[in-house]
Amino acid sequence: MITINILLVIVGIGLVIWGADKMTEGAVGVAVRFGVPQIVIGLTIVAMGTSAPELFVSLASAVKGTPDLAVGNVVGSNIFNVLAIVGAAALAAPLTISTGTTRKDLPISVASSVLLVALCADGTVSRIDACILFAGFICFMTYTVRLAKGGKNNADESQGDSQKAPTALRAALLIIVGLACLIVGGDLFVDGATGVAKAMGVSDAVIGLTIVACGTSLPELATGIVAARKGNSAIAIGNVIGSCVFNILMILGLTGLAAPMRLSGVGMTDMIVMAASAALMWAFCTTKHKVERREGAVMLAAYVAYIAYIIHNI
Predict the structure, then answer these.
(1) What are phi and psi of 290, to 5 degrees?
(2) For 225-265, what is each residue's pLDDT tens digit?
(3) pTM of the shown model
(4) In this structure, what are the phi and psi dihedrals at residue 139, rounded to the nearest 5 degrees?
(5) Which residue among 18, 23, 95, 130 sits deepest, i.e. has the most Cβ atoms within 10 Å of its Cβ?
C-alpha cells in the first residue's frame, strides 16, 4: 500500500510540473494578447486556478467533520506559499516587484491574514465569521477587476510583442490543460502523501499544516518557479498574493458557510506565523522593489524552522 502511495506522489509531482509550465505559457499569452497587466492575471486566473486543490480539500474536510484538516490546509498553504514558494522563486531568479504591488496588493494579503487571526481568536470559524471573510473576497475581486479595467500597468509589467504571443484559443487551451494537470497532480500527491502519513499515525492538524498544505500548494510552487525563470515576476508574485487571499477569504469563507468549524489542533502560533510570513514578504518586496536571492534563502530557512517546530511538537 505504501508503494502505491509513493507512486501516486511521483506521478502527481510530474503532472504538476508539466501543468505549471503550460499554464504559465497560456497566462502570459493572455496578458500579451489582450494587454492585461501580468499582475492582474496572476491575482485572478492563475491564483484562482492554483487554489482549486485547497478549495476542494478544505470543503471536503469540513463536510466530513475534520475541520482541523480544512483550516490547517489553508494556514499551512499560506505559510508555504509565502516562505517556500517566494523563497524558491527568488532563488531561481530574483523577483522584481512593482510599486503598485507593494502599496496595494501586498497590504491586502497581510490584512487578510490579520483578519483571520482575529476571527479565529475564539477557536471557531462561525457562519458570521465566514460571511465576513467572503465579503472581503468580493471586495478584493471588485478591486482587481477595476485594476484590470483601469489598465494600471506598472513599469515591470511590459506586455511584450503581441505578434509573438499564442492565439487566444491556444492560450486558453494551455491554461485549461495546465490547470487540469495541476489539479489532478496535486490531488494524486495529497492522496499518496496523506496515506503514508496516516499509516504513521500523524494527526489531522499536522497533516493539514504540512503534507496536505505542501501538496495542495505544489501548483503555486511550480508556477512560481517557472514564471520566475521565464522572467515573469509579476505572475509569480501575483500568484502567491492572490492564492493567499483566495485561501483565506474565499476558501475559508465558503467552507465556514458550508460547515462552521471549531478548531483544536491548529493553534494561534500557526496563525501568527502565517500573518508574520505575509508581513515578511511585504518587507522584503518593499526594499528596492525586489526579492533578492539572499532574501529568498532567508524565507526558505524560516519555513524549514517552522516545519522543525511542528515536528518537535508532534
Answers:
(1) -145, 155
(2) 888 888 877 778 887 888 899 889 998 998 899 888 887 77
(3) 0.75
(4) -65, -40
(5) 23
